[in-house]
Amino acid sequence: MAGGCPFHSRRGFMGAVGGFATALGLSRGADAVNAGGAPQAVRHSQAEPFWGVHQSGIATPPQGHVYFAAFDLHAETKAQLAQLLQRWTDASVRMMAGQPATEDSGDAEGLSPSHLTVTIGFGPGMFTQNGHDRYGLSAHRPDSLADLPTFAGDQLDPAKTGGDISVQACADDPQVAFHAVRQLAKIGRDAAHLRWTQAGFNASFAAGDTPRNLMGFKDGTQNPSMHANQPARLIRASSQPAEEDFDKVVWAGSEGPAWMQGGSYKVVRRIRIALEHWDNTEVGFQEQTVGRKKDSGAPLGAKTEFDALDLDATDKDGSLIIPENAHVRMAAATNNDGAQILRRAFSYNDGTNVIAERWPPWRQGLEYDAGLFFIAYQRDPRTGFVKIFENMAKFDALNQFTTHCGSGLFACPGGAQHGGYIGQALIEA
Ligand code: HEM
């Protein structure tokens, strides 16, 4: 086995997911298991496709976990960069099918593919670094990959910001997601070094429910095509998002370079939420802040989660029912000249930090380092995230509780066809 890996497949799988296998009508019998590995039927049912027009992990219904990594490139030549992308493609194909990567640490042995997706993105530093055209690619940098402006309230930590290339691994099992990034980091160690990472999770939702974020609100209700009123769980089971919405909002088209067609631009923001502060506020105030009901997720003044936002509705005193600075009003397309993004956010929880204030009321103790790992995909960040967030960063009521402390911008190229690799069209442009 290449790399001396002792694992040829994820053995022991039946023991790990026996309940699931039973639900599929599979037995633990020998014929349910292919030679030395997971049962084909189960493996296929939990494997997302790698090859295609688009990369996986963008339109894929959100999984329960993410492990994100941004890397600094150390490849010296374009050929080395191409080799990195080839190796990452080969390993991702294998891992998404539930197979070990070529050199594998073995810690996902026995686990199913868990809907693993791998999404690779190119940061501005791949095109130019300190004004230097590192790989002869600067002429191919898309205009849409324009550096993000500094937003009001930004407190970006350089240790959680930037990156020349990124990998977003999503899966329903956190170990499978982490495993994927760990193998890619190892395989690519000659060409790329980890710069920062972020793990995140989506509440495991009861059948058909939109997941809740750490503020306790349903998050992801109003998203392109997902407002087909299909709860996330049902979308996974039945339909893919409506392609028209995605063509308009998410997928890059002929307006940019050919190598980005079918791709999408990713903005990530590590947003800390002051949970201690939030937890000391009344539910009514929280609902005014968000603009939706906490229990049902319905817009204020409406009845159910998927009812339309009525931004003009007033109460008997003539006051707006959805307050002027409520989060959903600030973010709504109708309030932003039609700007839309695909949100694919995860909560994060990185433990606690010590605080010792040197001013009244002299607070001392521990504070959560937790919040939202916000991921947005769009056809052009200038008319997507930047357009929406510029105003929100100044006026959103949610800002009383949130601090953006990490950031990244990446061009995720289109998908690859069998035998090719992610980013090949750029390398060969
Ligand atoms: C910690 C930070 C944030 C939290 C807790 C949060 C939470 C929420 C919640 C609860 C909703 C309503 C339910 C839904 O439609 O999904 C929502 C909607 C939305 N949020 Fe955020 N959000 C955060 C940051 C952001 C940021 C930075 C943006 C940047 C553009 C954004 C854009 C949106 C959009 C576009 C909507 C849909 C608005 C609509 O059309 O109704 N959010 N968010």
Which labels suit this protein?
429 residues; alpha+beta; five-stranded antiparallel beta sheet; 9 strands; binds protoporphyrin IX containing FE
Please, could you describe this protein's structure?
The chain is built from 12 helices and 9 strands. The protein is of the alpha+beta class. Residues 1-36 and 226-241 have low confidence and may be disordered. The two termini are 35 Å apart. Protoporphyrin IX containing FE binds at residues 213, 215, 217-222, 269, 271, 273, 290, 292, 309, 327-328, 331-333, 341, 343, 371-372, 374, 385, 388-389, 392, 398, 402.
Count of beta strands: 9
How is the biggest beta sheet arranged?
Answer: 5 strands, antiparallel
Q: Considering DSSP H and I runs of 4 or more, what fraction of the residues is helical?
A: 10-25%
H and E string: HHHEHEEHEHHEHHHEEEHEH
Structural class: alpha+beta
Q: Which residues sit in consecutive blocks of at least 5 with pLDDT less than 50?
A: 1-36, 226-241
Gap between N and C termini: 35 Å
Beta-strand portion reads 15-25%
Residue-averaged pLDDT, rounded?
87
Bound molecules: protoporphyrin IX containing FE
- What count of helical segments does DSSP give? 12
The coarse silhouette is: globular
Q: For this entry, what is the oligomeric state of its chains? A: single chain
Radius of gyration: 22 Å
